[in-house]
Amino acid sequence: MEVPTPATAVAPTFSAAEHAEIEAAFAARPKRHETAEVARAHFAKTEAEGQYRLILEEVFASLPADEAAAMFVETEDPSERFYSPKPPTDRLLLARVGQKAADFFEALGPFHVAPITLADMGSHQGMTHMASNLENRDHEAATRENWRRWLDANDQAALPAMVDVAARGDGAGVYARNWLATRSETALPAIVHLAVAADIPEAFDRERFRHGRPVETLQWAARRYGVDTLKGVIDAEHRDRVESLARPCRQIDLATYRSKKWPSLIDANGEPLDDDAVRRIHKCDPTEAADLSADSKVAEANALAILDAFVADKAKPQLRWMIAAALALSPDATLRRLRGLMAGWSRSKNRNHRNHGKPVCAQLGRLGTREAVATLAMWSDSLSNTSHQHAARLALRHIAVDRGVNVEDLLEDALPDLGLEADGSLIIDFGPRSFDANFAHDGTPVIVDGKGKVRARLPKPGKKDDPEISAASIARFKDVKVDVKGVLGAEIKRLEYSLRTPRTWTAQAIRTRAEHPIFRIILPTLIWRSASGSTLRLGPSLEWLDDLDEIVSVIPDTDLRLAHPLDLDDDTMIRWRQIFADDELLPPFPQIDRESFPVDTSSGTVERCRDWQVPAGSLVGLLRSGWEGRWSHGPSLKGLKSPIEGGFAILDWMPFPTSEIAGAGPVYVGPLYLREHAWRDKILKGANPRSISELLRDLSGVRQA
C-alpha cells in the first residue's frame, strides 16, 4: 500500500464547466468600481500614497480577466501587494492563475486563506489546521462540520495531518486518535512509515529530547495495538527501528547510576539486583519488569526506594524516568506515594516541581489502571495548580476515548472501593478488639467501638492489643481517610456539576452504583426526577421511595436526573424537606434549598446579572469552577464564558490586568449573552434554564451585597 506523505499545495485542474461555474459565482458579487478606468485610477492612487496592498476581490471584480491575472502574476511577491483572498475569490484565482496562486496561498497559510481551499490543493497545513480545530468551539459549528466532512471524505489524503494532530494533548488530539482508531487498517501503516521516516536519533532521552509528532503517535498506537502489530506492517529491516521508537528509553550508565548513590534494589532473597535487572527496570516498561514484580512486597519496596531517591535528589526533571520505573514495578504503591507528592509539587514555588504535573498526569493516562483513573479524578479537582488539573482532565479524556466511553462513566466505573465494606465503613483491627469507621459525605470518620459507642477519635492501642496489627491498621486508616476525602470530594463535585447539564442515569445504573461503598455514602441522600415529573430517592436498603416516603416500583430502564429546584413545585419541596428532617438526612450539597434563578432564555440575553458588582479576584477565581477566560491584549481579563448545551454563556466587563487584581476594585459585569459559539454573533435560543440558573448562582455567590 502506498502511504501518503505530507505535501504542499498544488493548483487543481478545472474543467471548462467548473471554470464557467467559478466565473459565474464571482461575477455575481457586487462591484465597488463602476468601470475599469475608475478602478485603475484608484489602484494608481493607492500605490502613489504608499498603500501597496490591494484587495484582491476589487482587482478581479474591476479589471478585465487578462489584466487582473497579469497584475497578480507580474508581482514578484503577491503577499506584499495583495490582501488575503476570501471565497469565492480564492477559487477564481486558482482557475485564472494556477500554480502561482497555489504558492501564494501556501505562503499565507490557513489563517489568511480558507483551510478547506488549502486542503483541496493537498496542502498539509490546511488539513492540519482543520483537524486541530474540530473541537475548537470558537469556530462556527457549521464550519467545523464542513471540515469534518472533508476529512472523512478524503481520509487517505488526511492521514498525515491526523497522525500529526493525534500527538497533541488537547481535545483535537483525542478526536484525531479516535479518527485513526476507526481506520486502523490504513492508519497503522501510515503511522509506522511516517514515524520511521522522521529524522529522529537512534537513541534518545524521552524526557530531554523533544521528538516529532509521528513518533508520539506511534507510541500511542503501540500502547493500544501492541508493538508486534506495528512491526508487522513494515519491512523486516525497519522493525527494530519501530521497536526502539515505540519503547524509547535512556541508555543507562551503571557507573553513573552508582556514583549518584541511587537506591540499591533487591531481589526476593534480599540480595542486590544484577546489572541486567537494573537495566530492565530503567527501561520503565512493565513487560520488561514483569518477573521483577512477581513478589509484590519486594516490588513495592523497590518502587518506593526509587521514588525516595528521586525526591532526595531534588526531584529533577531529567530524573523523571524514576517515576515511570516505579510505576512499572508497583503501580498501586507508587500511586499512593505520588498523591502526596503531587499535592506538594502543585503548590511549590520550585519551577522543577511544578513542571512535573503534566508529564506525571500523562504517564498515569498511559497506565490507565483503576487506581490511576481514581488518582487522576482526585487531581482534576483538588490540585492547586490549574494547569495540573487540566492535564489530569485531558489524561482522563484520553483514557475514555481509547475505551469508547464518556469520561463520567469512566470515572464511576473505575471508582476504587479503597478497601471499605459494602456499607461504606472501614474495620480497624487492633487484634482482641476492633472499631468501625463510618464516613460522612465530607470524608469525616465517625469511630464506633465494638459495643456501639461513638468515640471522639480513634484510641491508642492498649497493652492487650496486638502492636503489629494495630500499627498496620492505624497506618491504613490514615491513608484511607485521606483517600476517602479526596474521592468523595471529587465525586460530589461531579454530581453537583451535573445539575447544569442534561445528563441522566437509568434507575438500574443508580442502584448498581449505590452498591459501591463510596456511592453508598452519597446517593441515598439525593433526590432524583423522572421525565414524567415524579421524584424519588434511595432508601436504606436501596429501595426506591417517593415524596410520601413510600416504597414504589421503578422500571430499571427509566431515565432519571438529579432534581433541581426549578423542576419542583412548592408542595413537592415541602414534602421532601419534611422527610429529610424526620430521617435526619444531610445531602452532600444543597438540592431542595438550592438558590435558583428562574429566567427567560428565549431572547438570548439574560439581564438578571447586569451591573452586579463582583470583586476582580472573585471573577478570576471562577476560572477554577468550570468558567473559561476571555482575554484582551496582554494578560487582561475582559470576560468569562461557560460551555452550555448547544453553545456558550458569555459574560463581559471592562478589561482589567490580572497582575493588578489587588487594586482593581469591584467590577460591574454586563448581562449574560447566550450564543451558539464564542464569537457572540449567533443567538442561542431556548437554553436550558437549569444551566443558566447555576451560572447565575456562581455569580451570586461572589457578588458584593
Work out the helicity level.
Answer: 40-55%
The portion of residues forming beta strands comes to: 5-15%
Largest sheet: 5 strands, antiparallel
- State the helix count: 31
Instruction: Give the strand line-up of the largest sheet.
Output: 5-9-6-7-8
Low-confidence stretches: 200-211
Task: Briefly note the structural class of the backbone.
Answer: alpha+beta
Q: Specify the oligomeric state.
A: single chain
Cα-atom radius of gyration = 31 Å
Using DSSP, what is the number of strands? 16
Measured between the Cα atoms of the first and last residue, the distance is 69 Å
Task: Please sum up the structure shown.
With about 700 residues, the chain is α+β, with helices and mostly antiparallel strands.
Keywords for this structure?
705 residues, alpha+beta, five-stranded antiparallel β-sheet, 31 helices, globular
